[in-house]
Design goal:
This protein is mainly alpha-helical. It is built from nine helices and no strands. Helix 4 packs antiparallel against helix 6 and helix 4 crosses helix 9. The longest helix is centred in the last third of the chain and has 25 residues.
Length: 174
């Protein structure tokens, strides 16, 4: 009783809403979360369960990281196509390296698989035709993923600066 009395003394009035209002807000929030989960689950190549597991179930953090991923990597599909045309496989390797960790962590399985295939092809000095074909697959999958993220999160306002902090601490239990 003393703990709660002290807590009530120091909590702002906004925190002390009537129970009915809190219950109504929680129900609305749960409904919004379910709608967001449904939209995210519909993104081609994205394994929602895998991504949420890495984020310890935090839909909010996971969504912010998806938005950050889309904002940070949207240009790569076009860049990959230009680099293939120029035969600049070293630059492609740099992009592949950048995408490998982030795509895997988010549960972007098709992008992750495409990245792994390109890495293997580059390591074994596969021919230009094979690398070009694999890069086309990656560019297509990356575009589909980013379009899906943008469509699924279009109604949300997400602060990308906050997401960058989440991304940096994603694996450390944050």
């Amino acid at each position: 009783p003393l703990f709660y009395a002290a807590l009530l003394k120091w909590l702002p009035a906004a925190v002390l809403e009537p129970a009915a209002a809190v219950t109504k807000a929680a129900a609305a929030s749960a409904s919004e979360d379910e709608d967001l989960r449904r939209r995210l689950a519909g993104i081609p190549g994205l394994n929602l369960d895998c991504g949420l597991a890495i984020m310890r179930g935090s839909l909010e953090k996971y969504t912010r990281l998806l938005v950050l991923f889309a904002a940070s990597n949207h240009q790569y599909a076009d860049q990959i196509s230009r680099m293939v045309a120029a035969g600049d496989f070293a630059a492609i390797e740099s992009i592949v390296h950048s995408l490998r960790g982030s795509a895997g962590m988010l549960g972007a399985l098709t992008v992750s698989e495409a990245v792994t295939a390109i890495s293997a092809a580059l390591r074994r000095d596969a021919g230009t035709d094979e690398i070009s074909r694999l890069c086309a697959v990656l560019a297509n999958e990356l575009s589909r993923l980013i379009d899906g993220i943008r469509q699924a999160t279009a109604r949300l306002v997400v602060d990308v600066a906050d997401a960058e902090g989440d991304f940096a601490g994603a694996g450390d239990g944050a």
